[in-house]
Design brief:
Length: about 550
Protein backbone atom coordinates (compact mmCIF):
# COMPACT_ATOMS: atom_id res chain seq x y z
CA UNK A 1 0.00 0.00 0.00
CA UNK A 2 1.00 3.58 -0.56
CA UNK A 3 1.24 6.03 2.32
CA UNK A 4 -2.08 7.57 1.23
CA UNK A 5 -3.79 4.19 1.15
CA UNK A 6 -2.40 3.34 4.60
CA UNK A 7 -3.80 6.61 5.98
CA UNK A 8 -7.20 5.80 4.52
CA UNK A 9 -7.04 2.31 6.02
CA UNK A 10 -6.10 3.76 9.42
CA UNK A 11 -8.91 6.30 9.32
CA UNK A 12 -11.44 3.60 8.45
CA UNK A 13 -10.19 1.43 11.33
CA UNK A 14 -10.53 4.39 13.74
CA UNK A 15 -14.09 4.99 12.59
CA UNK A 16 -14.90 1.31 13.22
CA UNK A 17 -13.20 1.22 16.62
CA UNK A 18 -10.52 -1.25 15.54
CA UNK A 19 -7.72 0.46 17.42
CA UNK A 20 -4.92 -2.09 16.95
CA UNK A 21 -5.57 -2.22 13.20
CA UNK A 22 -5.57 1.58 13.06
CA UNK A 23 -2.28 1.78 14.96
CA UNK A 24 -0.65 -0.75 12.64
CA UNK A 25 -1.78 1.13 9.52
CA UNK A 26 -0.64 4.53 10.77
CA UNK A 27 2.73 3.19 11.94
CA UNK A 28 3.28 1.65 8.48
CA UNK A 29 2.35 5.01 6.94
CA UNK A 30 4.93 6.72 9.15
CA UNK A 31 7.49 4.23 7.92
CA UNK A 32 6.77 5.37 4.38
CA UNK A 33 6.62 9.10 5.13
CA UNK A 34 6.27 11.10 8.36
CA UNK A 35 3.13 13.16 7.87
CA UNK A 36 0.97 15.10 10.29
CA UNK A 37 -2.01 12.86 9.54
CA UNK A 38 -0.10 9.69 10.34
CA UNK A 39 1.27 11.17 13.56
CA UNK A 40 -2.21 12.22 14.67
CA UNK A 41 -3.59 8.80 13.75
CA UNK A 42 -0.99 6.99 15.84
CA UNK A 43 -1.74 9.36 18.73
CA UNK A 44 -5.49 8.71 18.56
CA UNK A 45 -5.12 4.94 18.36
CA UNK A 46 -2.71 4.93 21.31
CA UNK A 47 -5.18 6.87 23.44
CA UNK A 48 -7.94 4.35 22.81
CA UNK A 49 -5.51 1.54 23.61
CA UNK A 50 -4.76 3.08 27.02
CA UNK A 51 -1.38 4.75 26.41
CA UNK A 52 -2.08 8.44 27.06
CA UNK A 53 1.50 9.64 27.51
CA UNK A 54 2.66 8.21 24.17
CA UNK A 55 -0.55 9.53 22.63
CA UNK A 56 0.23 13.05 23.80
CA UNK A 57 3.75 12.84 22.40
CA UNK A 58 2.46 11.91 18.95
CA UNK A 59 -0.25 14.59 19.04
CA UNK A 60 2.33 17.24 19.89
CA UNK A 61 4.43 16.15 16.90
CA UNK A 62 1.29 16.19 14.76
CA UNK A 63 0.45 19.73 15.89
CA UNK A 64 3.88 20.98 14.84
CA UNK A 65 3.59 19.22 11.48
CA UNK A 66 0.14 20.69 10.80
CA UNK A 67 1.42 24.17 11.62
CA UNK A 68 4.37 23.81 9.29
CA UNK A 69 2.06 22.59 6.54
CA UNK A 70 -0.19 25.65 7.01
CA UNK A 71 -3.20 23.54 8.04
CA UNK A 72 -4.57 25.89 10.71
CA UNK A 73 -7.86 24.08 11.33
CA UNK A 74 -6.24 20.67 11.91
CA UNK A 75 -3.52 22.24 14.04
CA UNK A 76 -6.18 23.94 16.18
CA UNK A 77 -8.16 20.71 16.50
CA UNK A 78 -5.00 18.90 17.66
CA UNK A 79 -4.28 21.69 20.15
CA UNK A 80 -7.80 21.33 21.58
CA UNK A 81 -7.27 17.58 21.91
CA UNK A 82 -4.04 18.24 23.80
CA UNK A 83 -5.88 20.61 26.14
CA UNK A 84 -8.34 17.84 27.00
CA UNK A 85 -5.65 15.19 27.40
CA UNK A 86 -3.38 17.24 29.61
CA UNK A 87 -6.22 18.07 31.99
CA UNK A 88 -8.17 14.80 32.02
CA UNK A 89 -5.31 12.33 31.67
CA UNK A 90 -2.37 14.01 33.40
CA UNK A 91 -4.07 16.61 35.61
CA UNK A 92 -1.84 19.35 34.19
CA UNK A 93 -3.96 22.52 34.29
CA UNK A 94 -1.17 24.81 33.09
CA UNK A 95 -0.55 22.76 29.94
CA UNK A 96 -4.29 22.51 29.30
CA UNK A 97 -4.62 26.30 29.52
CA UNK A 98 -1.67 26.77 27.21
CA UNK A 99 -3.01 24.46 24.52
CA UNK A 100 -6.50 25.97 24.36
CA UNK A 101 -4.92 29.41 24.14
CA UNK A 102 -2.78 28.13 21.30
CA UNK A 103 -5.81 26.78 19.47
CA UNK A 104 -7.57 30.12 19.73
CA UNK A 105 -4.54 32.01 18.44
CA UNK A 106 -3.98 29.63 15.53
CA UNK A 107 -7.54 30.29 14.34
CA UNK A 108 -7.36 34.08 14.69
CA UNK A 109 -6.50 34.63 11.04
CA UNK A 110 -8.46 31.66 9.70
CA UNK A 111 -12.16 31.08 9.15
CA UNK A 112 -13.11 29.59 12.54
CA UNK A 113 -16.89 29.24 12.07
CA UNK A 114 -17.00 25.43 11.83
CA UNK A 115 -14.74 25.20 14.90
CA UNK A 116 -15.91 28.09 17.04
CA UNK A 117 -18.37 25.86 18.89
CA UNK A 118 -15.66 23.33 19.68
CA UNK A 119 -13.41 26.13 20.91
CA UNK A 120 -16.17 27.23 23.30
CA UNK A 121 -16.70 23.65 24.46
CA UNK A 122 -12.98 23.04 25.04
CA UNK A 123 -12.53 26.34 26.87
CA UNK A 124 -15.48 25.38 29.10
CA UNK A 125 -13.77 22.07 29.89
CA UNK A 126 -10.52 23.85 30.71
CA UNK A 127 -11.86 26.61 32.94
CA UNK A 128 -12.42 26.22 36.68
CA UNK A 129 -15.05 29.00 36.65
CA UNK A 130 -18.39 27.17 36.54
CA UNK A 131 -20.41 30.27 35.57
CA UNK A 132 -18.07 30.99 32.66
CA UNK A 133 -18.32 27.33 31.67
CA UNK A 134 -22.11 27.61 31.59
CA UNK A 135 -21.96 30.64 29.27
CA UNK A 136 -19.47 28.95 26.95
CA UNK A 137 -21.50 25.73 26.78
CA UNK A 138 -24.72 27.58 26.02
CA UNK A 139 -22.90 29.30 23.15
CA UNK A 140 -21.44 25.97 21.97
CA UNK A 141 -24.92 24.45 21.97
CA UNK A 142 -26.30 27.32 19.87
CA UNK A 143 -23.49 26.96 17.35
CA UNK A 144 -23.87 23.18 17.22
CA UNK A 145 -27.53 23.45 16.32
CA UNK A 146 -26.88 26.21 13.78
CA UNK A 147 -24.17 24.15 12.09
CA UNK A 148 -25.90 20.78 12.43
CA UNK A 149 -22.95 19.35 14.37
CA UNK A 150 -24.58 16.52 16.32
CA UNK A 151 -21.40 15.48 18.17
CA UNK A 152 -20.87 19.00 19.49
CA UNK A 153 -24.56 19.21 20.40
CA UNK A 154 -24.41 16.01 22.46
CA UNK A 155 -21.15 16.97 24.18
CA UNK A 156 -22.39 20.48 24.98
CA UNK A 157 -25.71 19.15 26.32
CA UNK A 158 -23.95 16.73 28.67
CA UNK A 159 -21.40 19.26 29.91
CA UNK A 160 -24.02 21.98 30.34
CA UNK A 161 -26.07 19.53 32.35
CA UNK A 162 -23.07 18.78 34.55
CA UNK A 163 -22.41 22.49 35.05
CA UNK A 164 -26.01 23.02 36.17
CA UNK A 165 -25.74 20.13 38.64
CA UNK A 166 -22.54 21.65 40.00
CA UNK A 167 -24.46 24.88 40.66
CA UNK A 168 -27.33 23.05 42.34
CA UNK A 169 -29.85 23.13 39.49
CA UNK A 170 -29.97 19.38 39.62
CA UNK A 171 -33.28 18.56 37.96
CA UNK A 172 -32.64 20.78 34.94
CA UNK A 173 -29.06 19.54 34.71
CA UNK A 174 -30.03 15.88 34.68
CA UNK A 175 -32.73 16.53 32.11
CA UNK A 176 -29.99 17.72 29.72
CA UNK A 177 -27.67 14.88 30.67
CA UNK A 178 -30.35 12.25 30.11
CA UNK A 179 -31.10 13.77 26.71
CA UNK A 180 -27.43 13.70 25.77
CA UNK A 181 -27.03 10.11 26.95
CA UNK A 182 -30.10 8.98 25.07
CA UNK A 183 -28.93 10.59 21.84
CA UNK A 184 -25.37 9.38 22.22
CA UNK A 185 -26.04 5.79 23.16
CA UNK A 186 -28.92 5.67 20.69
CA UNK A 187 -26.31 6.07 17.96
CA UNK A 188 -26.64 9.71 16.85
CA UNK A 189 -22.93 10.41 17.21
CA UNK A 190 -20.46 10.27 14.36
CA UNK A 191 -17.35 10.23 16.56
CA UNK A 192 -16.75 7.47 19.13
CA UNK A 193 -15.11 9.87 21.58
CA UNK A 194 -18.47 11.63 21.90
CA UNK A 195 -19.56 8.61 23.94
CA UNK A 196 -16.59 9.07 26.27
CA UNK A 197 -17.25 12.77 26.80
CA UNK A 198 -20.97 12.41 27.51
CA UNK A 199 -20.51 9.41 29.81
CA UNK A 200 -17.86 11.21 31.87
CA UNK A 201 -20.12 14.22 32.34
CA UNK A 202 -22.99 11.97 33.39
CA UNK A 203 -20.84 10.14 35.94
CA UNK A 204 -19.43 13.32 37.46
CA UNK A 205 -22.91 14.76 37.87
CA UNK A 206 -24.24 11.55 39.43
CA UNK A 207 -21.42 11.56 41.98
CA UNK A 208 -22.05 15.17 42.94
CA UNK A 209 -25.73 14.42 43.48
CA UNK A 210 -25.15 10.92 44.95
CA UNK A 211 -27.60 9.59 42.35
CA UNK A 212 -26.84 5.87 42.44
CA UNK A 213 -29.90 4.77 40.47
CA UNK A 214 -29.16 6.99 37.46
CA UNK A 215 -25.44 6.16 37.50
CA UNK A 216 -26.19 2.43 37.64
CA UNK A 217 -28.60 2.65 34.71
CA UNK A 218 -26.26 4.59 32.44
CA UNK A 219 -23.12 2.70 33.54
CA UNK A 220 -24.66 -0.52 32.27
CA UNK A 221 -25.16 1.09 28.88
CA UNK A 222 -21.64 2.56 28.93
CA UNK A 223 -20.21 -0.86 29.78
CA UNK A 224 -21.89 -2.26 26.67
CA UNK A 225 -19.98 0.33 24.64
CA UNK A 226 -16.74 -0.56 26.42
CA UNK A 227 -17.21 -4.26 25.75
CA UNK A 228 -17.80 -3.56 22.07
CA UNK A 229 -15.03 -1.06 21.41
CA UNK A 230 -12.75 -1.11 24.42
CA UNK A 231 -11.73 2.11 26.14
CA UNK A 232 -9.49 1.77 29.20
CA UNK A 233 -9.97 5.45 30.08
CA UNK A 234 -13.77 5.22 30.18
CA UNK A 235 -13.64 1.92 32.04
CA UNK A 236 -11.37 3.43 34.71
CA UNK A 237 -13.50 6.59 34.87
CA UNK A 238 -16.63 4.50 35.39
CA UNK A 239 -15.01 2.46 38.14
CA UNK A 240 -13.64 5.53 39.94
CA UNK A 241 -16.76 7.65 39.88
CA UNK A 242 -19.20 4.81 40.42
CA UNK A 243 -17.07 3.70 43.38
CA UNK A 244 -17.38 7.17 44.90
CA UNK A 245 -21.16 7.03 44.57
CA UNK A 246 -21.21 3.59 46.23
CA UNK A 247 -19.20 4.98 49.15
CA UNK A 248 -21.68 7.82 49.65
CA UNK A 249 -24.70 5.53 49.51
CA UNK A 250 -23.32 2.93 51.92
CA UNK A 251 -22.55 0.10 49.48
CA UNK A 252 -19.05 -0.22 50.86
CA UNK A 253 -18.22 -3.77 49.76
CA UNK A 254 -19.13 -2.89 46.17
CA UNK A 255 -17.23 0.40 46.47
CA UNK A 256 -14.13 -1.48 47.63
CA UNK A 257 -14.21 -3.66 44.54
CA UNK A 258 -14.71 -0.79 42.09
CA UNK A 259 -12.14 1.53 43.64
CA UNK A 260 -9.48 -1.13 44.06
CA UNK A 261 -9.88 -1.93 40.37
CA UNK A 262 -9.64 1.76 39.49
CA UNK A 263 -6.50 2.28 41.57
CA UNK A 264 -4.78 -0.61 39.82
CA UNK A 265 -5.85 0.44 36.33
CA UNK A 266 -4.83 4.08 36.62
CA UNK A 267 -1.53 3.67 38.47
CA UNK A 268 0.78 4.18 35.49
CA UNK A 269 -1.46 5.55 32.76
CA UNK A 270 -3.65 8.33 34.20
CA UNK A 271 -2.11 10.20 37.16
CA UNK A 272 -5.04 12.58 37.54
CA UNK A 273 -7.57 9.76 37.74
CA UNK A 274 -5.21 7.70 39.90
CA UNK A 275 -5.13 10.48 42.49
CA UNK A 276 -8.93 10.63 42.38
CA UNK A 277 -9.27 6.85 42.83
CA UNK A 278 -6.85 6.93 45.77
CA UNK A 279 -8.79 9.81 47.31
CA UNK A 280 -12.10 7.94 46.95
CA UNK A 281 -10.64 4.80 48.52
CA UNK A 282 -9.08 6.87 51.32
CA UNK A 283 -12.51 8.41 51.97
CA UNK A 284 -13.89 4.89 52.38
CA UNK A 285 -11.08 3.96 54.77
CA UNK A 286 -11.74 7.07 56.86
CA UNK A 287 -15.42 6.18 57.15
CA UNK A 288 -14.37 2.71 58.24
CA UNK A 289 -12.07 4.22 60.87
CA UNK A 290 -8.94 2.74 59.25
CA UNK A 291 -6.75 5.84 59.55
CA UNK A 292 -3.37 4.27 58.89
CA UNK A 293 -4.56 2.79 55.61
CA UNK A 294 -6.11 6.10 54.59
CA UNK A 295 -2.83 7.85 55.33
CA UNK A 296 -0.95 5.32 53.22
CA UNK A 297 -3.30 5.81 50.28
CA UNK A 298 -2.94 9.58 50.43
CA UNK A 299 0.84 9.54 50.70
CA UNK A 300 2.23 11.36 47.68
CA UNK A 301 -1.09 12.79 46.47
CA UNK A 302 -1.94 15.04 49.44
CA UNK A 303 -1.43 18.16 47.34
CA UNK A 304 -3.75 16.99 44.57
CA UNK A 305 -7.02 18.91 44.63
CA UNK A 306 -9.00 15.65 44.50
CA UNK A 307 -7.36 14.54 47.77
CA UNK A 308 -8.07 17.72 49.73
CA UNK A 309 -11.22 16.50 51.47
CA UNK A 310 -9.94 13.10 52.69
CA UNK A 311 -6.59 14.67 53.64
CA UNK A 312 -8.34 17.33 55.71
CA UNK A 313 -10.60 14.69 57.30
CA UNK A 314 -7.56 12.56 58.13
CA UNK A 315 -5.75 15.47 59.76
CA UNK A 316 -8.82 16.22 61.85
CA UNK A 317 -9.11 12.57 62.93
CA UNK A 318 -5.42 12.61 63.88
CA UNK A 319 -5.93 15.60 66.17
CA UNK A 320 -4.64 18.33 63.84
CA UNK A 321 -7.70 20.57 63.35
CA UNK A 322 -5.64 23.66 62.48
CA UNK A 323 -4.07 21.82 59.54
CA UNK A 324 -7.50 20.63 58.46
CA UNK A 325 -8.90 24.16 58.57
CA UNK A 326 -6.02 25.54 56.51
CA UNK A 327 -6.39 22.85 53.84
CA UNK A 328 -10.12 23.37 53.53
CA UNK A 329 -9.95 27.14 53.36
CA UNK A 330 -7.29 26.99 50.64
CA UNK A 331 -9.33 24.55 48.57
CA UNK A 332 -12.57 26.48 49.00
CA UNK A 333 -10.83 29.60 47.74
CA UNK A 334 -9.76 27.76 44.57
CA UNK A 335 -13.03 25.92 44.08
CA UNK A 336 -15.51 28.73 44.62
CA UNK A 337 -18.45 28.26 46.95
CA UNK A 338 -21.06 27.90 44.23
CA UNK A 339 -19.66 24.47 43.41
CA UNK A 340 -21.68 21.64 44.97
CA UNK A 341 -18.44 19.98 46.07
CA UNK A 342 -18.00 22.89 48.49
CA UNK A 343 -20.84 21.51 50.63
CA UNK A 344 -18.85 18.62 52.12
CA UNK A 345 -15.84 20.88 52.59
CA UNK A 346 -17.81 23.50 54.49
CA UNK A 347 -19.42 20.80 56.62
CA UNK A 348 -15.97 19.45 57.53
CA UNK A 349 -14.73 23.00 58.11
CA UNK A 350 -17.44 23.40 60.77
CA UNK A 351 -16.23 20.24 62.53
CA UNK A 352 -12.57 21.24 62.30
CA UNK A 353 -13.29 24.74 63.60
CA UNK A 354 -15.24 23.29 66.52
CA UNK A 355 -12.34 20.94 67.29
CA UNK A 356 -10.11 24.03 67.45
CA UNK A 357 -12.52 25.70 69.85
CA UNK A 358 -13.25 28.36 67.23
CA UNK A 359 -17.00 28.82 67.60
CA UNK A 360 -17.07 31.97 65.50
CA UNK A 361 -15.22 30.23 62.66
CA UNK A 362 -17.57 27.26 62.85
CA UNK A 363 -20.62 29.54 62.80
CA UNK A 364 -19.27 31.42 59.79
CA UNK A 365 -18.67 28.17 57.89
CA UNK A 366 -22.19 26.95 58.78
CA UNK A 367 -23.64 30.23 57.52
CA UNK A 368 -21.74 29.90 54.23
CA UNK A 369 -23.06 26.36 53.88
CA UNK A 370 -26.61 27.63 54.45
CA UNK A 371 -26.13 30.22 51.71
CA UNK A 372 -24.88 27.49 49.37
CA UNK A 373 -28.08 25.54 49.99
CA UNK A 374 -30.34 28.39 48.86
CA UNK A 375 -32.01 27.95 45.48
CA UNK A 376 -30.95 24.33 45.04
CA UNK A 377 -33.52 21.78 43.96
CA UNK A 378 -32.14 18.78 45.82
CA UNK A 379 -31.60 18.98 49.51
CA UNK A 380 -28.49 17.08 50.57
CA UNK A 381 -26.73 20.46 50.78
CA UNK A 382 -29.59 21.79 52.91
CA UNK A 383 -29.36 18.68 55.12
CA UNK A 384 -25.63 19.22 55.62
CA UNK A 385 -26.30 22.88 56.43
CA UNK A 386 -28.92 21.93 59.02
CA UNK A 387 -26.53 19.55 60.76
CA UNK A 388 -23.73 22.12 60.68
CA UNK A 389 -25.89 24.81 62.28
CA UNK A 390 -27.05 22.30 64.90
CA UNK A 391 -23.50 21.31 65.81
CA UNK A 392 -22.62 24.95 66.40
CA UNK A 393 -25.71 25.27 68.64
CA UNK A 394 -24.67 22.16 70.60
CA UNK A 395 -21.17 23.58 71.06
CA UNK A 396 -22.73 26.76 72.45
CA UNK A 397 -24.81 24.75 74.93
CA UNK A 398 -28.08 25.35 73.07
CA UNK A 399 -29.53 21.87 72.50
CA UNK A 400 -33.09 23.12 72.07
CA UNK A 401 -32.00 25.14 69.03
CA UNK A 402 -30.15 22.14 67.63
CA UNK A 403 -32.95 19.57 67.89
CA UNK A 404 -35.25 20.74 65.04
CA UNK A 405 -32.27 21.23 62.72
CA UNK A 406 -31.01 17.74 63.44
CA UNK A 407 -34.44 16.19 62.96
CA UNK A 408 -34.55 17.85 59.54
CA UNK A 409 -31.05 16.61 58.70
CA UNK A 410 -31.82 13.02 59.73
CA UNK A 411 -35.03 12.93 57.68
CA UNK A 412 -33.46 14.38 54.54
CA UNK A 413 -30.23 12.39 54.65
CA UNK A 414 -32.15 9.16 55.21
CA UNK A 415 -34.48 9.91 52.31
CA UNK A 416 -31.51 10.69 50.06
CA UNK A 417 -29.94 7.30 50.91
CA UNK A 418 -26.82 8.75 52.58
CA UNK A 419 -26.70 6.33 55.54
CA UNK A 420 -23.33 7.32 57.03
CA UNK A 421 -24.20 11.01 57.16
CA UNK A 422 -27.70 10.21 58.43
CA UNK A 423 -26.28 8.10 61.28
CA UNK A 424 -23.90 10.90 62.28
CA UNK A 425 -26.78 13.37 62.37
CA UNK A 426 -28.82 10.88 64.40
CA UNK A 427 -26.03 10.53 66.98
CA UNK A 428 -25.86 14.33 67.22
CA UNK A 429 -29.62 14.34 67.77
CA UNK A 430 -29.22 11.81 70.59
CA UNK A 431 -26.68 14.08 72.27
CA UNK A 432 -29.03 17.05 71.95
CA UNK A 433 -31.87 15.05 73.53
CA UNK A 434 -29.81 13.50 76.33
CA UNK A 435 -30.94 15.79 79.16
CA UNK A 436 -34.42 16.61 77.94
CA UNK A 437 -35.61 13.19 76.75
CA UNK A 438 -33.07 10.52 77.77
CA UNK A 439 -35.22 7.58 76.65
CA UNK A 440 -35.56 9.06 73.17
CA UNK A 441 -31.83 9.83 73.17
CA UNK A 442 -31.08 6.17 73.87
CA UNK A 443 -33.32 5.08 71.00
CA UNK A 444 -31.66 7.50 68.57
CA UNK A 445 -28.15 6.51 69.69
CA UNK A 446 -28.98 2.83 69.31
CA UNK A 447 -30.27 3.46 65.81
CA UNK A 448 -27.08 5.34 64.96
CA UNK A 449 -24.97 2.56 66.45
CA UNK A 450 -26.80 -0.07 64.42
CA UNK A 451 -26.27 1.91 61.21
CA UNK A 452 -22.55 2.39 61.87
CA UNK A 453 -22.17 -1.27 62.82
CA UNK A 454 -23.98 -2.40 59.67
CA UNK A 455 -21.82 -0.18 57.47
CA UNK A 456 -18.56 -1.19 59.13
CA UNK A 457 -17.81 2.32 60.44
CA UNK A 458 -15.81 1.09 63.44
CA UNK A 459 -14.76 4.41 64.98
CA UNK A 460 -18.23 5.93 64.77
CA UNK A 461 -19.79 2.73 66.13
CA UNK A 462 -17.41 2.93 69.10
CA UNK A 463 -18.38 6.57 69.67
CA UNK A 464 -22.08 5.68 69.63
CA UNK A 465 -21.50 2.77 72.03
CA UNK A 466 -19.53 5.01 74.39
CA UNK A 467 -22.31 7.58 74.38
CA UNK A 468 -24.89 4.90 75.14
CA UNK A 469 -22.85 3.87 78.17
CA UNK A 470 -22.93 7.45 79.48
CA UNK A 471 -26.72 7.18 79.36
CA UNK A 472 -26.64 3.95 81.33
CA UNK A 473 -27.65 1.90 78.29
CA UNK A 474 -25.91 -1.19 77.00
CA UNK A 475 -23.16 -0.26 74.63
CA UNK A 476 -20.44 -2.36 73.18
CA UNK A 477 -18.12 -3.31 76.03
CA UNK A 478 -15.06 -3.78 73.90
CA UNK A 479 -13.83 -3.71 70.34
CA UNK A 480 -16.01 -5.56 67.85
CA UNK A 481 -14.66 -8.87 66.65
CA UNK A 482 -15.03 -8.87 62.87
CA UNK A 483 -12.56 -11.58 61.99
CA UNK A 484 -10.14 -14.16 63.34
CA UNK A 485 -6.51 -13.16 63.36
CA UNK A 486 -4.06 -15.31 61.45
CA UNK A 487 -1.00 -16.65 63.26
CA UNK A 488 1.12 -13.91 61.71
CA UNK A 489 -1.40 -11.22 62.72
CA UNK A 490 -1.32 -12.53 66.32
CA UNK A 491 2.47 -12.16 66.26
CA UNK A 492 2.07 -8.61 64.95
CA UNK A 493 -0.49 -7.77 67.65
CA UNK A 494 1.91 -9.04 70.34
CA UNK A 495 4.64 -6.75 69.02
CA UNK A 496 2.27 -3.78 68.76
CA UNK A 497 1.35 -4.50 72.38
CA UNK A 498 5.02 -4.17 73.30
CA UNK A 499 5.05 -0.73 71.63
CA UNK A 500 7.07 -1.63 68.55
CA UNK A 501 6.79 0.58 65.46
CA UNK A 502 6.13 -0.78 61.98
CA UNK A 503 9.86 -0.69 61.00
CA UNK A 504 10.72 -2.48 64.26
CA UNK A 505 8.03 -5.12 63.60
CA UNK A 506 9.39 -5.57 60.09
CA UNK A 507 12.89 -6.13 61.46
CA UNK A 508 11.74 -8.54 64.16
CA UNK A 509 9.70 -10.69 61.74
CA UNK A 510 12.07 -10.29 58.79
CA UNK A 511 9.41 -8.85 56.49
CA UNK A 512 9.19 -5.59 54.52
CA UNK A 513 7.94 -2.41 56.14
CA UNK A 514 5.06 -2.34 53.68
CA UNK A 515 4.03 -5.86 54.69
CA UNK A 516 4.29 -4.95 58.37
CA UNK A 517 2.06 -1.91 57.82
CA UNK A 518 -0.43 -4.11 55.96
CA UNK A 519 -0.56 -6.60 58.86
CA UNK A 520 -1.06 -3.81 61.41
CA UNK A 521 -3.91 -2.33 59.35
CA UNK A 522 -5.50 -5.77 59.01
CA UNK A 523 -5.34 -6.34 62.78
CA UNK A 524 -6.94 -2.97 63.47
CA UNK A 525 -9.70 -3.63 60.95
CA UNK A 526 -10.49 -7.15 62.17
CA UNK A 527 -10.65 -6.12 65.83
CA UNK A 528 -12.52 -2.86 65.14
CA UNK A 529 -9.70 -0.79 66.67
CA UNK A 530 -9.14 2.82 65.68
CA UNK A 531 -5.42 3.25 66.32
CA UNK A 532 -2.27 1.73 67.78
CA UNK A 533 -3.08 2.94 71.29
CA UNK A 534 -6.28 0.88 71.27
CA UNK A 535 -4.33 -2.07 69.86
CA UNK A 536 -1.84 -1.82 72.75
CA UNK A 537 -4.72 -1.78 75.25
CA UNK A 538 -6.39 -4.73 73.54
CA UNK A 539 -3.19 -6.76 73.54
CA UNK A 540 -2.59 -5.99 77.21
CA UNK A 541 -6.11 -7.19 78.12
CA UNK A 542 -6.36 -10.22 75.88
CA UNK A 543 -2.90 -11.64 75.15
CA UNK A 544 -0.63 -13.35 77.59
Amino acid sequence: MTAVELLETGDAALQAGRWADALAAFERALGEEETAGALAGVGEALWWLGEPRRSITYHERAYTAFRRAGEAARAAWTAMWLCLAYKADLGNQAAASGWIARAERVLQDADPDPMRGWLCWTRAFETTDVELAQELLERALELARALGDVDLELCALADLGEALVVMGRVEKGFALIDEAMAGTLGGEYTRLDTVVFTCCSMLNACELAADLARATQWCRVADDFIQRYGCPYLYAECRTTYGGILVATGRWDDAERELTTAVGMTRDAWPAMHALALARLADLRLRQGRLEEAEGLLEGVEDDLAATLPTAALRLAQGEPAVSVALLQRRLHLLGEKHMEAARMLELLVDASLAQGDLDGAAAAAERLGELALGRDRDHVAARAARAVARVSLARGEPDAAIPQLETAVERLSRLDLPFEAARARLDLARALANREPAVAVAEARSAFAAFDRLGAAADADAAAAFLRTLGAAGRSGPKQVGILTKREQEVLHLVGFGLSNPEIAGRLVISRKTAAHHVSSVLAKLGLRNRAEAVAYATRNLG
